[in-house]
Amino acid sequence: MWKLCRPRVFSGALKKCAQESGQKLSSQNIRLASSKPANGRRRGRWRVLFYSVAAAGSFAVVGSAAFRQRRINQIKEIEKTWDETVTTRKKLVVLGSGWGAMSLLRQLDPGMYDVHVVSPRNYFLFTPLLPSVTVGTVEPRSIAAPIRKLLSASHGNMAHFYEAECMSIDVKNRTIKCQDTSGVVGAVSSFELPFDQLVIAVGAQTTTFNTPGVKEHAHFIKEIPDAQNIRTRIMDNIETAFLPGQTDAEKRRLLTTYVVGGGPTGVEFAAELRDFLLEDLSKLYPAIADLLSISVVQSRGHVLNTYDSQIGEYTQNEFEKHRSRINVITEARVTELKDTVLSVYHKATKEKTEHPYGLCIWAAGNAPQTVVADLARSLPEQTNRHALVTDDYMRVKGARCVYALGDCQTNDTSVLTAQAEKLFKDADVNGDGHLSYEEFGALMDKAQKMYPHVNVFFATAREALGHDSVFEMADKNKDQQLDFDEFKSLLKKVDSELTSLPATAAVANQQGVYLGSLLNTLAGPSVALDVNPAMTGCKRFHYRYMGSFAYVGDNKAVLQVPVFGAMKGWWTMLLWRAFYFSSLSTWRTRCLVGFDWTKAYILGRDTSRL
After folding, report:
1. CB 213 within 8 A of CB 228
2. Dist. CA 407–CA 202, nearest whole Å
3. Is the pLDDT of residue 550 over 50?
4. pTM
5. Rounded CA gap, 2 and 5, in Å?
6. What is the 3-state secondary structure (H, E, C) of 463-530?
7. Please, which residues bridge with residue 399 across strands?
């Protein structure tokens, strides 16, 4: 009888009964009868989802409060016996105040080290929401948390912060030179700081690829002042275009925005700007609403190329809808920027075209900070010009007492090659010691969901050689199957695409947590400063890919997670906001961001040019 509750079975039963009784039953009545269980089932699913989210949120709040109280009690007990003059404690200096530095400091046990933090900014910035600041969806102070407050929560009064910039690192003498680069300079503006252990977490700056005119005419999205400058420029362009007597050509130029780079930052900025144009500016400036346009220039075949191909295609389709007003230019790169015109080189046709613009956002790649580049040049073991090369324990090669994490770090870890034997055994379903085309395809489909750099390799190979090129390239003896040596050789080639881990907050956060635990193990005075962590039983760092989010506009987001693969749509937007809301560093920032989202939805975004 329970099967009759299912809509299709129930409607079929109705038809059968009607035929047997000789009565005619309209299709409308059948639909009405069959829709009731379906509607109930949908309501049940939403009820389960609501209660699940509510329960998860409740557990998160209670768990966070319990952990916070436990940490406060722990700090109070340690502070009772704290003595800064004790010289047996190792001096730990942390450079930076981003994701890597803050996750390390939270993980580090209070009182274990003499902790000193040096950063040119005295706040932690929640960078994933920075594109939202550029259009006023979120206010700048809502995503900034004071460093001293975060330090106090993790270490009480047992940690020190200096608002300064590290200018040079002397590995031999274990000292750093710092300079006050703020707007107010006192009698003392520079100082030296000795260290026993040094953690470099200074991030990276945006690379220009030596493209002429980028530094002079483009805008970057790295810091809060960058977002504020973009917000001001957007409104300035619009008000200038609205002046009487302005020609149509000049209006169109002022209202044209180019975004260089189709990664998460570029895509999310374009999506936020698109929402701002359609939801707010088109109502306040109807006379010029049809002239507003956005273009994304991407060097690869589709945007979000490090994500699953379904996500990239979905995002591009969302952008290219008529209502969206976002034009995606793929297989192209910007070769020069002038004051009002930029040049684009198209790889397919090998042609150059010029495009007038009012605003250009450069979100294409990272370059090392000056202090990182100088340190790398001073160490013969450093062979990478983009970041500091570390071992599996985050130690900088050539400087054993120095650690690096986040965007300023890279390593030689081979993610897939290290698991070659297990992957081969799992994929060899029939156990014949070889992988058929079908077995290899199933394995690579699974690997693409779990390891983002596999997507990059497949996309590049297929664009160059064709759809089946990867298997054919690996099959050296052309016997239509892969032995273990051929399989391992392919994995090495795939891993060679992983020159560094993704430059995301998730990677820096995991590295900070790992390094904090590692330093807790190495904190004792009996442990030598340059001890090999492997000798103490410490595990190597292993990055666990947990998934990637990106907002694509129109209250829609995309999500890629291991095992489940690609997810997209408006409901993913709820997950996107819930995840970012829970990831904010303090309850103050959570309240402010929640209020900003509500305010923008009900009252609209502020268009004042301040």
Report:
1. no
2. 8
3. yes
4. 0.78
5. 6
6. HHHCCCHHHHHHCCCCCCCECHHHHHHHHHHHHCCCCCCCCCHHHHHHHHHHHHHHHHHCCCCCCCCC
7. 396
